[in-house]
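Trying the structure run again after the queue cleared.
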Amino acid sequence: MAIVQKEKLTRDLSISLLIYSLPVLAIFLYFKLTNGLVAESHITLPSYLEFIQPAFQNIRTWGLTVFMLVLGAVEFTAGLYDDEWTGQERKVDIICFLAPKLLLPPVIAFFSLTALPYLIPNLANSLSWVPFWGGFFLIAIADDLTQYWYHRLHHQVPFLWRFHRTHHSAPYMGMAMASRQNFIYTLFFSQIYLTATLTYLGLGLPALFVLVIKSIITLGAHSSLKWDKPFYKYRALHPIAWVLERLISTPATHHAHHADTSGDGVGHFKGNFGNMFFIWDVIFGTGLITRKYPESYGTKSYKQEEWYAQFLWPIFKSKKEGSPLAEGVVAFPLKAKPENVTPSPVYYEQVQS
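Done. Tokens:
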């Protein structure tokens, strides 16, 4: 079994390297076919997109926050949280939503304005000659495929699972829990620094467009408003649904990832790792498409841990007995053998892999 898993991992990583190289190859062929000509349009937006640049900039600065708050208010008013949003859950969601907005900007600013000029001082704007479409697909693929692997590994590596567990502890779906993450998981988001680096290299405009489009898709996939349902209901829309659900994350596919069980044929926390693009799950065989939605969400081992343990484990541990975030937890084996089970306070949780 271990050999098969190792072979699959090697195959998937090899395919990933090929996918990463595709935008670079396309840009190379483009300039080869145009005899290396670099027009002014390569460092600006295409004319047909200039009119929407202000909108994308506003969405980036404050629009996404407003979008989340409005959509969350609609969900709450419609009663879509089913009374699951208790005081403890609200506290975790609000802190996870607000704290990174205060704590992350200085880190990213230091990386972009101080670390990068020091590490690669002569490469600022060195990719500004890349055409907009090339930069867009380069960032979209590099960012989202990297996040796919980051996400997948946090489900498949027992130690890493505890950093991602906070996102899956919510017993509901919606805007309230979309930003619910352990801060250390967020801080080491490799794609944050990858996108910052590509922006430093001169791909700021494509990065802006990728960020906005990706944010809207991922927020829509977490929403409790099942916007994809009409595509499954009406036969005339089925061809669109077939493409849509394989290309991007939808409520049906991403809700399945947050289900608290995989035994009903709908839940699939062992896959559906894609964030913006679901196609990674199709390519690597980790996807499950049912066009149905789980009955319940979260993790069976959830103990409603304190906000500080969920947000800053392992810096702060939970005081809840039996919690995987408590002091003394040493491992998360898939199945603890009786002879290896040690007395309390060592606890075990089945990793969601």
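Residues 87-119 form the longest helix (33 residues). Worth checking whether this holds up in the mutant runs.
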